[in-house]
Amino acid sequence: MATNPSKFPNYSPGVMSLLPLYYVGWADSVLSPSEVKLICKQIEAFPFLDKKDKMLLLEWSDPSHPPSRKLFRHWVNLIRKTAENLPIEKRKSLADLGIEMAKRNAGTIDDITWSAPETKAALQELEKALGVSSLEVYRNIFRPAQRAKEIEENVHQPGFDVTAMTQLLDDDYHELRNRMRILLSDPAFHLQTLREKSEHRDVVLQWCKLIAQQGLAAVAYPLEYGGKANMGDYICVFEMLGYHDLSFAIKFGVQFGLFGGSVLWLGTKRHHDKYLKDIGTLDLPGCFAMTETGHGSNVRGLETTITYDADTDEFIVHSPTEAAGKEFIGNALHSKMASTFGQLIVDGINHGVHAILVPIRDKEHRLLEGVRVEDCGYKLGLNGIDNGRIWFDNIRVPRENLLNKFGDVDANGKYSSLIESPSRRFFTMLGTLVGGRVSVPRAGLSATKTALTIAIKYALKRRQFPSQDKNVETLLLDYPTHQKRLMPLLAKTYALDFALTYLAKRYVNKTEKDSREIETLAAGLKSYATWFTTHAIQECREACGGKGYLMEN
Ligand SMILES: Cc1cc2nc3c(=O)[nH]c(=O)nc-3n(C[C@H](O)[C@H](O)[C@H](O)COP(=O)(O)OP(=O)(O)OC[C@H]3O[C@@H](n4cnc5c(N)ncnc54)[C@H](O)[C@@H]3O)c2cc1C
């Protein structure tokens, strides 16, 4: 038994084992009726307590007689004496700490009790049932210097195997992700707060060129065009760019995914041979011109016309009204060519929406005659992307420029398609957008992870309002409300990461048979995950107080 210079009696090991729980239970000066009921019931059942112990503990459990300040201090001193000499793993929970306190006050026979798993389980059960989750109260047991050390240790030494977790999350793309991590930390990709949109756009364009030089932009294209025919790699690169700058991810997606993807998936060999290599190196910057001012979601209602002229064997691309102008087109200011969607009219018959490659600028980057482009201006975000409006005034384009995989016009002016149903043809063409639906939520989730990392780390440093012993202020993350704000978001982020990995795998391995199901899954998950991203990032901002409002954060 330990010697006791105070006027309080020495406690038995059994009482010692429960002292940390009593300390935390009484720290807010309240023992609720359900807590009292539970404690009394458990105390009766604990085999390691004798009659005298039980009487003392029941006395301490009387809600109408809280422990005096002196008694409370005495408990703190006893707990500290043991706790301060213990390594962290032996005082992770109140039950662990209680066992150690009992051991230090026990004779050799009693040692068996305190090493028995049942004893620990019984204490853990009580701790869990009491819902003692206030970390701050627990940390108050320790002196400020040790508390700070513990927090540091907790921050820098997570209680799980980081390498194993990284490999699990990196999935099949561990090497590629590591390569991207190293690349993006290169000074060439140094992040800056650029308020002027033209500066930001130039930087993002430069970054896209650097990524292309690394051979990481064309990865989805066939080998003969500088790629690796690996859509999974493309999705992975896109996701990693989301950790850096979302303008970068979207610009990359527009050039290599939407523009390049439309040439790859809607075009045929003649287009691949002529353009794909240059698209993958960014020697041919292009855009994906689908949306119009008058029609966004309703793509079938597009007004742009692509009319076949049998006399010259050309197509005439035209915006018949102001509202038929293409709107919000990414890369519009940097592009030389636009993959343009419009109604295909041959011999007076409308065959529905098709895509055609329309050159819009010459080598010197001057707009071609008949093409008008306007900057969409500043947006709420993504100002590193040059979104613009484009109008076509009877632009003549060679017949070969029609992206003709699903619908073609021959030299005799005859339209043909392997897909008879216009509706099925339309949805097949829109299938080019599915890669984006799989990639965009992943980059969004990367941004969520960054925001959560900042908010959680901040909450582990930032202190507000004095704690019980008035010496130090309370850490934000020790407030249960703050935990409830951030921890469910963190858990959901993990869940969505696994869900999006599943989706990407299904998409990469899709067959004719399951492609409809995957498209539906992609549409649903994209909406759900990006709504979550918006909500989570806003919550993280608010959780950082005024600092969350700063542009640099
Ligand atoms: C940053 C950015 C980049 C973009 N880049 C490109 C690009 O590179 N190329 C390109 O072609 N387009 C691009 N777009 C355009 C984008 O594809 C359109 O904004 C999108 O298709 C929606 O069209 P809209 O803006 O006309 O909205 P609308 O279609 O007018 O929709 C407005 C609202 O009404 C809702 N709504 C519409 N129809 C229905 C309905 N039937 N039932 C219920 N609700 C409905 C929509 O959900 C939405 O909330 C970009 C947009 C943004 C914001």
Provide a descriptive summary of the structure in words.
The chain is of the alpha+beta class and 553 residues long. It has four domains: 13-148, no CATH class; 168-278, Butyryl-Coa Dehydrogenase, subunit A, domain 1, CATH 1.10.540; 286-418, Butyryl-CoA Dehydrogenase, subunit A, domain 2, CATH 2.40.110.10; 434-549, Up-down Bundle (Butyryl-CoA Dehydrogenase, subunit A, domain 3). Helix content is 50%, strand content 12%. The chain has 19 helices and 13 strands. It has helices at residues 13-26, 33-45, 51-60, 69-83, 94-104, 108-115, 117-130, 135-139, 144-156, 162-170, 174-184, 197-213, 231-241, 246-266, 269-281, 422-430, 434-459, 480-508, 515-543; strands at 286-289, 305-309, 314-318, 326-329, 337-346, 349-359, 371-375, 388-392, 395-398, 408-409, 415-416, 463-466, 473-475. Strands 1, 2, 3, 5, 6 and 9 form a six-stranded mixed sheet that branches. A three-stranded antiparallel sheet has the order 4-8-7, with no helix packed on it. Helix 12 (197-213) crosses helix 14 (246-266) and helix 18 runs antiparallel to helix 19. It is elongated and about 110 Å long. It binds flavin-adenine dinucleotide (FAD). Flavin-adenine dinucleotide binds at residues 254, 258, 288-291, 296-297, 328-330, 382, 387.
Write the layout of secondary structure elements.
Blueprint: H1 13-26, H2 33-45, H3 51-60, H4 69-83, H5 94-104, H6 108-115, H7 117-130, H8 135-139, H9 144-156, H10 162-170, H11 174-184, H12 197-213, H13 231-241, H14 246-266, H15 269-281, E1 286-289, E2 305-309, E3 314-318, E4 326-329, E5 337-346, E6 349-359, E7 371-375, E8 388-392, E9 395-398, E10 408-409, E11 415-416, H16 422-430, H17 434-459, E12 463-466, E13 473-475, H18 480-508, H19 515-543
Parallel strand pairs: 1-5, 2-5
Antiparallel strand pairs: 2-3, 3-9, 4-8, 5-6, 7-8, 10-11, 12-13
Helix pairs in contact: 1-5, 5-6, 5-7, 11-13, 12-14, 13-14, 13-17, 14-15, 14-17, 17-18, 17-19, 18-19
This protein binds flavin-adenine dinucleotide.
Flavin-adenine dinucleotide is lined by residues 254, 258, 288-291, 296-297, 328-330, 382, 387.
